[in-house]
Input
Amino acid sequence: MNFHSMVWKEMLRRPGHTLTGLLIVALGVAALVAVESVVGSSEQKVASQMQQLGANILILPDGVTLQDYYAADAHGKSLPEEYVTRIALAQKVGVEELAPKLSVPAELGGDSIVVTGILPRTEFYKKSAWQSVDLLTSGLSESAVGKKHEGCGGRSCQIVTADKTDISSYASTRIVHALEMDSALVGADLAKSQRIEEGQSIRILGEEFQVAGILPATGTSDDSRVLAHLHRVQEVAESGPIVNVIEVMGCCEEVATTLVGELNELLPDARAVTISQIVQTQVTVNRLMNRLSYVIFAILMMIGGASIASVMFANVAERKRELGTLMALGATPGMVSRMILLKASAVGLFGGVCGLALGLIAAFLAGPQFLGVATSVSMNAVIIGMIVALIVALAASYPPARKAAHLDPCLCFQDS
Amino acid sequence: MRSLLGLIVILAFLPVNGFAAKMTERVEAAAKNGKYTYVMFYRADNAATEQMANTIRSHVAETREKTTWAVVNIQDRAESRLVKRFDATRIPLPAVFSVAPNGAVTGVYRQRVSQEQLTNSMLTPMYSDMVKALQSQKIAVVCLMPATAMPIPTGVAQLHRDADFKGKLHQVNVYATDSSEADFFNRMQVDRNLTTPVVMMFAPPGTHLGTFNASVKGQELAQELHKSGKCNCTKCQKKKK
Output
């Protein structure tokens, strides 16, 4: 019988004790890995939204709050479309594009869908062209109207380029250059489920629309929508000139904060918010979850450590005679304490591995299901969890190991 | 009494579109007569509407020779063509559009307007020609000339011959000797006492691309256009891709 098999046999002889400690350690690591992985993925999603939409501002009807940027038009409240013109004519510094949206429920092939009215860029070109004279004057005298934001490309030119006319670019730019009144763009998922192809005719809200393009998948609610010209959607839905949201694309993130104040002043009955304000709640929740996961981990580790220590002390007390025999047969105090520490490290490592597996399963199930994020493993949590589980198990076993190492074989036999 | 009743009945059954679109006709007539028209749209009779109407009225009274005005209620179905042309149901009202005789919109003012703004929206014929070109999505090449006898800078002709810009340029020649265009020189910040031609380029909706002297080569102008990224030529499109 060698040293390792002695440790292994010792663990198997008291499986209940071993499992208790192991389970608590596993739960602690599982909680840390699961929460950290989900929070990490959520943070990545927020960061990617910030990078992609950092300079964007949403104009919402007063009283509307939202957490999902891509569902900003799904609140049922409206704004007059004249607000769009008001922004366009105000020629605010840093405003690059405007994208108002109106979403109405409809049916397509027996399925309930959402039809979103969007306004092509050409409509704004027409309106900003009304101010050609002001822009010409400002271009020559540097007055406020049409002024560029310093360091930015500024106002985009209205001579049409090929990348602007590509309808599928809506998926990435959220802007379409030109869109015929009877044309529609269909989201990737909807096109797939309804087998819709480009050039096909579809009937929505009692009117025929020609499918001008199928949008590439974006992973947003746009994938299951039909997009059509805003004025056509207003007409068929008999809504009048209203919109649910106005998306303002700023030239850069730096200008967004200044623009929010200016837009709130320009549109007193609406509310302008930046993407960072929208994701603020999510950022706060993420931060809280992050802290909470460490608190839970610390508590469970303390309980686990105490449990392991108690089991080990009891074990040493119970095994005094066997330990005395071992020492009488020549086992050194170091060997005795190593035996106990090895048992503890096995509990710590195995508990950590079980916790890791449990945590990952929980994260991969809960992430997409409840939080709508595709989970990726938090390597930090894995490393911290495993190391702390091992340290706690070893630290908790150190006093009993030390006690066992200092046993006097004669006294052991005397006591028994 | 019976005839009055009859008239009421006839009026009641007349289709709304049957009435003449008086304001639309007025705008068209003003254009034919070479006059500027201030087209004012409103939704309701309120203080803002009244104030705007008063400002326009007094301005038109002072410039009767050159201007006229039309007031349109956006709910008036007879004027739907005008309402649709200016998308007036979707703009903050009251609003006034300054329309040049060539159809170019030379100004739009919402909720309030001043005499000064109305005056500034009146342009010289060549200026409004340039604005019209910009509103038709063309690049405006302005040649400010000391006199009619002087030849147009060769660079401009070379630019016209460049295949990259075929159909995308609109040339406007303005002569310092033409007193009616004095305001054009003023607004372009170019001295009317110039001795050699000056070339200016603008892109829609009103971006100043550059001012060049008479010796400018077509290649330089083309280069400037390419550099600005606003030419939309095939070469630049390929580069962007």
The CA atoms of residues 137 and 331 of chain A lie 97 Å apart.
